[in-house]
Design goal:
Radius of gyration: 16 Å
Distance between the termini: 45 Å
Strand order of the largest sheet: 1-2-3-4-10-9-8-7-6-5
Largest sheet: 10 strands, mixed
Order of helices and strands: EEEEHHEEEEEEH
Number of strands: 10
Length: 182
C-alpha cells in the first residue's frame, strides 16, 4: 500500500511498507517512492512537460558535456569513452554534496530513453532518462533514480531531500535549455 502525502518521503524500515509522495502539480509532477524490502530499494521519479519536440529534448538531454552550463546541480562532466554516447559509454559526473561517480550507459534507445548505472560500496544506482512525444512541439521528460543495496536505507534517509531537489532542478534546467536555448 502507498500513502499519498506532500513534498516529503517517509521511511519505516520495520514495517516493510513504502510511502508514496506526490507534489502539487503546476507545470510538473514529482513523485518519489521508497520501497524498503529485502533488497533495500528506493525509487525516485520526476516528470515535467516541455514545450519542445521529442527530438529537441533528446538532443539537449544527451549533450551531457553541456550539463554544467544547463543544470545547476552538475559541476563537471567528463566522457571517459569516445563520443558519441551509446550503450557502453562511460561518463564521470561531479555534483555538489554528492561523491563523484562514473556512470555506465546500459540502455540507449534514441530518441526516447537512456539509462545509466553506477556502483559503489553498499549501493548501486540506476538513473533513467525518458523523453515521450506528446505532440509535434510538446514532450514529457521523466527522470528516475533507483537505489539498491544494503546501505540504501541509511544513505537514502540522508539523501532523500537532496535527491528530490536535484531531480527537480535537473529537469527544470533541461526544460529551460530545450525551450529557450539555441
Amino acid at each position: 500500500m502507498f500513502q499519498k502525502c506532500f513534498c516529503f518521503l517517509k521511511f519505516d524500515a520495520k514495517s516493510q511498507m513504502g510511502a508514496h509522495v506526490e507534489a502539487g502539480r503546476l507545470d510538473s509532477e514529482l513523485t518519489g517512492t521508497i520501497r524498503p524490502d529485502a533488497r533495500s530499494n528506493m525509487h525516485f521519479e520526476y516528470s515535467i512537460e516541455i514545450d519542445a519536440s521529442q527530438g529537441r529534448v533528446w538532443e539537449i538531454l544527451t549533450d551531457v558535456e553541456a550539463w554544467p552550463e544547463r543544470i545547476e546541480t552538475v559541476e563537471s562532466v567528463e566522457l571517459l569513452t569516445p563520443p558519441p554516447l551509446s550503450r557502453g559509454s562511460q561518463v564521470r559526473l561531479t555534483q555538489p554534496r554528492v561523491p563523484e561517480g562514473v556512470w555506465d550507459i546500459t540502455i540507449w534507445e534514441p530518441p526516447s530513453y537512456f539509462e545509466w548505472h553506477q556502483e559503489s560500496t553498499g549501493a548501486n544506482t540506476v538513473a533513467g532518462h525518458r523523453v515521450e512525444n506528446l505532440s509535434d512541439h510538446r514532450s514529457r521528460l521523466t527522470l528516475t533514480l533507483e537505489m539498491r543495496g544494503l546501505l540504501v536505507p541509511i544513505f537514502g534517509r540522508m539523501y532523500k531531500d537532496l535527491t528530490n531537489r536535484y531531480m527537480t532542478l535537473e529537469a527544470q534546467g533541461l526544460r529551460r535549455a530545450a525551450e529557450n536555448g539555441p
